[in-house]
Amino acid sequence: MKDISVQELISSKEFIPVDVRAPIEHRDSAIPGSVNIPLFTDEERQEIGTLYKQSGEEAAKWRAMEIVSPKLPHLLGEIKDLKKSGAEPVIHCWRGGMRSRSVASFLEYAGIPALRLEGGYRAYREYILERIPQLLPEKAIVLHGMTGTGKTDILQALQEKGYPVVDLEKMANHRGSIFGMIGMGEAHNQKTFDALLFERLNEIKGSNYFIIEAESKRIGRAAQPEEMLKKKVNGIHYLVKSSIPKRVQRIYNEYVQPFLGEAWFEEEVREKVSKLIKRVNHDVSPSLAFALEEKNYKKLIEILLVHYYDPRYNHALLEYEGPFEDIDSDHPDVIEDIVKEIQKTFSDSTAV
């Protein structure tokens, strides 16, 4: 059995982290790219924990042995199959304790050399939190713009061209508008957000700038690091603009049209809009309710943009001093225009 450090794990593509914690732990906090091969199910973990509190360590360990013993051939076989695929499994649990040590020992007894992550997931998290501020490039290019102006499309296009984009909404699995959130599932927690942020910053390491959207500090369930917020405020600012009809059509095409006719979609829209009706001007509420009832989603989007999202965005924009360079996202050459601006500003570096 050999222990490797977090630095060694991250520095090599030959390793694949194998998380032997229960599924509920893996869902809450996982190393990106890791595989969950749990020693215990969620229910078994709870049973052993309860037994430990009520009857002590010896009874809990004995019960754990009873649960694990029949599983060992299948569990070790899954890890062995990973090795056959060319990857080098690195076993870990929460803090490099009994669970990962047990699995690594079983592998060694079966004649399979085992690697274990020193300090487990806890060491990984401590490492990335320390490294994130150090990995942030010097300058931020910040895309501002109201809901539906196509900022996400611009970021995706730039990333496809190899530019150092950091897509914060994707990392948080959360978008600002109610339609943007439909069908996305639960927003990522802070641990998942930090892990994905570290992974992307590590990928663009060496660039002297990064490109982000002007998100507020908290994005869904996660918060940006303070160092990133400071760079955002002092960054190079682009204001993405688009006409109301184009914005409505953009939101409709991406977030409404694919789900039309789905019962869950209509229920989710109704639930989310019903909450917003209380926050818009009373003069607008009847129109919003009528558009919802008639399933006139384009009209619904337009009302929300004009009377809810835009006023709030204008207020948020006051946090920045600028100057702002205007970008017309309705123009067919918008990506080429931004690329030219970036290359002009950073003449020594373009894509990464």
Automatic annotation (TrEMBL):
GO molecular function, one term: tRNA 2-selenouridine synthase activity
Keyword Magnesium: no
A Pfam family it matches: AAA_SelU
Domain Rhodanese residue range list: 11-133
Keyword Protease: no
Keyword vocabulary terms for this entry: Selenium
Gene Ontology process terms (BP): tRNA wobble uridine modification
Database matches in InterPro entries: AAA_SelU (IPR058840), P-loop_NTPase (IPR027417), Rhodanese-like_dom (IPR001763), Rhodanese-like_dom_sf (IPR036873), SelU (IPR017582)
PANTHER family according to UniProt: TRNA 2-SELENOURIDINE SYNTHASE
Protein's UniProt name: Selenophosphate-dependent tRNA 2-selenouridine synthase
